[in-house]
Amino acid sequence: MSAVSRVGIVGAGFAGTAAAILLADGGVEVDLFDAKPEVSALGSGITIQGNACRILDQLGVWEQVQENSYPFDVLGLRAPDPQGSVIAVIPDAKMGGENYPATIGMYRPDLAAILVERAEKAGVRLHWGAKVDDLLQDTSGVDLQWSEGGARRSERFDLVIGADGLHSAVRELIGIDARPQQNGMGIWRAFVPRPAEVTHTDLVYGGPCYIAGYCPTGPDRMYAYLVEEAQERTALSPEEQLATMRELAASYHGPWDEVRESLGPDARINYTWFTQHLVEGAWNRGRVVVIGDAAHSCPPTIAQGAAMSLEDAVVLAELLLAADSLDDAVWAEFSDRRLPRLREVVNASSQLADWLIAHNRDADVPGLMRRVATIVSQPA
Description:
D-Amino Acid Oxidase, Chain A, domain 2; 31% strand; 2 domains; six-stranded mixed beta sheet; eight-stranded mixed beta sheet; 20 strands; globular; alpha+beta
């Protein structure tokens, strides 16, 4: 018997939809709330490591993901020289095991749509345009109050899961004061045609940016990114954003010459700052718990953000479906299984970013990457 029979989940991102799917498949009645009017059609690409691929298979969407992504098993390093010379092509760790590629690239909105569709098929009730206003709980349940379509509504749940992202309303409502902190880096992303020679991620360290990279997402598309010192870029017009990214990309060559020429109004250019945070101690307050980006974030320097969010959902759903009651033992085991692993990943991601900011050429990057790979290769 499950510890819960009815669950409300706030946030239809990767953590929220994954938790909804697993709980609904386990016989739990699930309502999923999101402030957006529909599943997002905007965004660029995402790099997904093997441990996340393993979970996507567990969620029953691996076949669709394979059809809409680009797999590869190596990582390339290029020089910031006029030729974009290849320095090395390194076999990448298969953190999901031999049945999955080391890495896949994918268009982020495609993955979001696949997960939402799977949640609907599992029987999850979706509420789009639903803004959570308050959470009132006692020892037996939680009254979730939200606004939808101009009306105020309320429903009672055994548990509410806050998977509503970096600026989580649920986290604030339950009094967890951890907040994402900027780490000094900003990233430009663009969605562009894939040059034929790009068959895996290549990274360039040096030049005007900390990192210049790209990741193929399909037969003819990829996303390209430039990581720079964080700056206030919100006032730039789309034309100014395009000009800025082209200017930064001018120092990189090889496939970047083709990428730079392909940057245009349809490249979906966006700019964000890297953040990092981790909620230490319990992620719940009574019968409300936060997971995913609401509980932790890190610079995407080792591409584990989505994987960690999916892992949160897997572990939480497993514990809820196996327990007879929602007691302190459930929350203690959840913390024991998530916090040590998240500390390693967040600290390693932040350490690598700090080394880049400091231009530390003596840093043991291979050792750091091996340590993280060893940890996350084991199922959560």
